[in-house]
Amino acid sequence: MKKCTFLISFALLASMILNAEPIPDGYYSSIEGKSDSILKSTLCQIVGGGVRYEYGTTSYHTSSNPPQWEKGDLKAYGTWQALPLTDRREDGSIWDMYSNSVRYYPNKQGESGCSLNIEHCLPKSWWGGDVNDAYKDLYHLNPSDAQANSQKSNYAPGHVQKGDKFDNGSFRMDSKSKSTYGYICFEPAPEYRGDFARAYFYIATAYENIKWSDTYISAGYIRPDNYLFFSDAIIQVLLDWHREDPVSDKEICRAEQISSIQHNRNPYIDYPELIEHIWGNKKGQSASLDNLMCTYGTGTCSEFVPPVDTEHKFDTLLNFPALTKSIVNAVPNCFASDKIQSNGTSSITMGASTTDGFLSFSKLNLQKEATLIFRASAYNTATSMQLDIYADDQLINTISEDVENFTRNEVRYTTTIPAGTDSVSIVSVGGATTKRACMQELYLLTPKSEIETILSSASTAQPTAKKVFQRHIIHHCGQPHLLCSWIMITLTESIKRNSVFLGLWLASVLALTIALILIDKGTLHLLLCDHHSAWADRLLPVLSDTCHWLPYALSAVLLLWRWQAGVFMSGSLILSTIITQTIKHIVRAPRPLTWFAENMPDVTLPLTEGINMHHYLSFPSGHSTTFFCLYFALTALFTYYSYSASPVSANAFWAKLFPKTQATPSSSRKASPSVQIAVQLLFFSLAAVGSYSRIYLSQHFALDVLAGMLIGVFSVALVAHIFVAVMRRKPDTRTA
Questions:
Q1: pLDDT digits over 54-108, tens only?
Q2: In angstroms, rounded to a whole number, what is the distance separating the alpha carbons of residues 220 and 214?
Q3: Residues 6+ apart with CB under 8 A from 416
Q4: Contact 241, 189 (CB under 8 A)
Q5: DSSP string for residues in 172-209
Q6: Which residue in 23, 39, 276, 629 has its CB near the most CB atoms, within 10 A?
Q7: Prediction pTM value
Q8: CA-CA distance, 400 to 386, in Å (whole number)?
């Protein structure tokens, strides 16, 4: 327990901020010294408690009879309403472990939507489908792509070889003939396999005493008379998944949210090694909390995105945050055709069988141009979709999408409706379920100038290219390797905003690289440093020495001004220093004075009087690293606050440094292009001259400076994802 005690104490403050429920003191103490079946049964007694919300949409939970509210409970919520807390990405999209499709919760809350199901990770049919606590347990309930869910059915997990039965690029299945187990099996994406395994082991532990289905006992999937519960083949698959995909931030943060709802824990997320003690290579060994690794409080959790209320902020002519046939037909002059099918409480399918459906909105009498906004995707069995949009019976837009690799991204579409229009219709075109659209959420808004605001602020807006790219990287790099996505995403945004600084930096890197290829090390150094002058001998040492105090001073000032900016600056400097010093002490390259004495003894270096010369640890240049790290971080901060919609005017701050800069209203805080260019030129010049001073003073070679330039910018880019997450954090408006 000692390994976890500090983490639990440290996580108490974070749990208060994230509205998560901390592990109660002594929660796991009864497992001390136990092993095998006794350990599993003890865990069953511990985690089998708590409450479960009703399955599906809004309902009262059943923690007491008659139902009553308890502190921390979600009022009148079912499992659908819990999923936006447990399975929502930072950009507001649904975290679907069954597909790569990008979708959003209808009405920005938890409801069933287009081609979306709640899936039992361990099939409910394995216990006969009774609506018991296992049926409603969020630790194995996930939002899932409807087609993948249907294909998964009640089949067992396994190592998929061919993927011939189903493969959507994330979730794969082998047919019986291709499977190595003699039965149909499924396999999720690599970054989610551990999640599935720990959910299976949790259900087998928390509900070991419920009645399991004879059908699946006979099939050999489960063996309730044995404490190991699953067949040997399934146990091996789950152990492989558990070991290959360790507990991730996503899984830790999801468990924290579920704990605050159900008031129980998944022990195999808190203490992953317990799985080995019951099913794995530590069977027969007694569990000791002192020796178990604890993950509680170690996750980095993204901020929950609260729903954005847009209804009362704009001139809304049509407002359907939830879209069903009955809701549309209840509004005067709005009509949904007979073949429109409602999906749950918030979405519709645009047709039935071979007949297409349509929506019609009349007597609009638009006095000015408006914009029609809705979200749509292909139906869960469709291979394409087409929607024609008419204004007064004139076709003004056609929206069509083809499904690739079973991926059906939900997109927010916009169409400009001309002034003077009296009626608008949306017509599905296809004549078959294989070419059909699913829609949810529809608005008609005016004026146009305000529409851009709602689109940029709504939590369910169409995903940005950055987020789509992030998911692509996560899919191909794996959850444990999110570092590569952080780097690429951060660099993409940095290049856009800091193009002047980075353009000059890249040109300098290329120029130095070419020079180092074409000219030998010693000759190049002499070319760069053999032009001393009295003013440079006085100025450059002073500029070089600013490296020793300026970063600390600026970090302190930033911490006082904006602590997030100070943390960003300090983190970038610390990371760059660690990288530089590590390489220095590994390589231990000689400085120019020592190198020339050993390799070109006839050459006399031009030295500056009064400079203390160093002899080793030349590569890379620590000064160059610090200069480029410092000034690129300052550039990033300037461009961030120049674009930011922060309550404090960024331009008002920078106007003190640049008097000609005019502070702008909160709706437009972007600094003028000339100021953007001037500031980036200034910061790059300071970094470049500071780095050159190290060559001029013969403290470093050009190669050392080049490495420092790369490390400095790289360090800022790596830390930038933390800066963006902190600086854009919004207050949590959920009630306990």
A1: 787 654 334 444 444 343 444 446 777 788 888 888 877 889 999 988 887 765 5
A2: 10
A3: 369, 370, 371, 372, 396, 448
A4: no
A5: EEE-TTT-TTSS-EEE--GGGHHHHHHHHHHHHHHTTT
A6: 629
A7: 0.54
A8: 4
